[in-house]
Design goal:
By secondary structure, this protein is α/β, with parallel strands linked by helices. It has helices at about 15-25, 45-55, 60-65, 115, 155-165, 180-190, 220-225, 235-240, 245-255, 255-270, 275-280, 285-295, 300-310, 335-340, 360, 365-375; strands at about 5, 70-75, 80-85, 95-100, 130-135, 170-175, 195-200, 320-330, 345-350. α6 links the parallel β6 (about 170-175) and β7 (about 195-200).
């Protein structure tokens, strides 16, 4: 059995001091008046957020909160893997592996781990309990950086059954958002004898472009699918899928650049009812996510996930007969007809609040939906 080593986050004080010094010395770009966010993150907004990060945000407090969860590292397929492993007090709890995406991290799950592992302590039913395993994707955060090419989504999905096996879990569920909403169904295909069901938030599957796919859809569904043709919103992905190394020089050297690159996605993908990201998510939780990328130096390796996988974008997947559940939040691109083309969808929910970062924005809704789906397959 491969070694599993206890892990504790402990960022050196010198790194915190360096972050503050770099933020204080930022050379800010100009901005055109009246353009708002249409050209990207406004310098005026970034300056205020960076100043909060530099002077008011408390990394040590957030670090301590993360360290309340048992964490470990192990090596799988030549790569260091960091993960949270939080066992439920309920002995019959179902193991559940949670997978984040980009620009996410395990910090996304801080508001859902408690209710998922100990529902009785959060007003829920003991029978809905889960043992939570939340790994950092190879190349991300404390699993990074990667040291060789080839770490695409499929390789990640093939690593997760090995991780669960090492933890002694032979029967478990999978859940994910963003890249996790692609990795989790792949995990189901990689280990159908182990995975009892897959739940995702966001979207499940991608349109092929066949006009027949659009016939008879509602206006809301057509609007969601329209996101796949929005080149403006896809600019970040094109850069990460083609020139992640060039991009990384700026993100790795300038915390202001790393901040802007990530926070732009929080602006675009969170609940559209909120004008600014911090209206939709807790500002300190968002900055914890940014800080993890900065302190671990994983701007390049996390972006490489796009480069490694872009050749397979849009490829048709083999049909999965495993039960799948989908939670669609405002701004998500989920359409049931698309999802059902390649997956056995037995549970579908649509919500009127929350957004792409559901575990941060609407943890109550996400937890409720995860519980409801897995009641069908436990």
């Amino acid at each position: 059995m491969a070694k599993i080593t206890p892990f504790r986050i402990d960022i050196p004080q010198a790194d915190l001091d360096d972050l503050r010094e770099r933020l204080a010395r930022t050379r800010w770009p100009d901005e055109l008046p009246g353009t708002g966010w249409s050209y990207g993150v406004p310098s005026s907004y970034a300056k205020e957020l960076a100043e909060y990060w530099r002077t008011a945000y408390d990394w040590r407090k957030q670090e301590a909160a993360l360290n309340e969860y048992p964490q470990f590292t192990t090596e799988i397929d030549g790569q260091n893997i960091h993960f949270l492993h939080v066992r439920s007090p309920e002995p019959d709890a179902l193991p559940l592996i949670l997978t984040h995406g980009w620009p996410g991290s395990v910090a996304e799950f801080m508001k859902v781990i408690g209710p998922l592992t100990d529902p009785a302590a959060h007003g829920g039913d003991r029978s809905d309990a889960f043992h939570i395993v939340a790994p950092s994707i190879p190349g991300f955060g404390f699993s990074g950086p990667t040291t060789e090419t080839g770490w695409d989504l499929q390789r990640v999905a093939r690593a997760w059954p090995e991780l669960m096996d090492r933890l002694g879990y032979q029967r478990y569920g999978a859940q994910g958002g963003d890249s996790g909403s692609v990795i989790s169904p792949m995990l189901g295909r990689a280990a159908p004898q182990n995975v009892v069901g897959v739940h995702v938030n966001g979207a499940l599957g991608f349109p092929t472009g066949d006009p027949a796919e659009f016939e008879g859809l509602t206006q809301a569904e057509l609007t969601r699918l329209g996101q796949y043709q929005d080149q403006d919103r896809a600019g970040y992905a094109m850069i990460q899928a083609t020139r992640p190394q060039t991009l990384a020089f700026g993100l790795h050297d300038s915390p202001a650049a790393q901040l802007a690159w990530i926070v732009e996605k929080f602006k675009e993908w969170t609940d559209p009812a909120h004008e600014l990201p911090e209206g939709a998510v807790d500002i300190d939780q968002m900055l914890t996510d940014v800080s993890i990328y900065w302190f671990t130096g994983t701007a390049a390796s996390s972006a490489r996930l796009y480069k490694e996988g872009q050749k397979r974008w849009g490829a048709v997947a083999e049909y999965s007969a495993l039960p799948h559940g989908v939670a669609v939040f405002p701004g998500d691109a989920g359409v049931r007809r698309i999802a059902e083309r390649e997956h056995n969808v037995v549970h579908w929910s649509e919500f009127d609040r929350g957004g792409h970062f559901a575990a941060m924005e609407a943890p109550d809704l996400l937890v409720t939906d995860i519980r409801a789906f897995f009641r069908l397959v436990r």
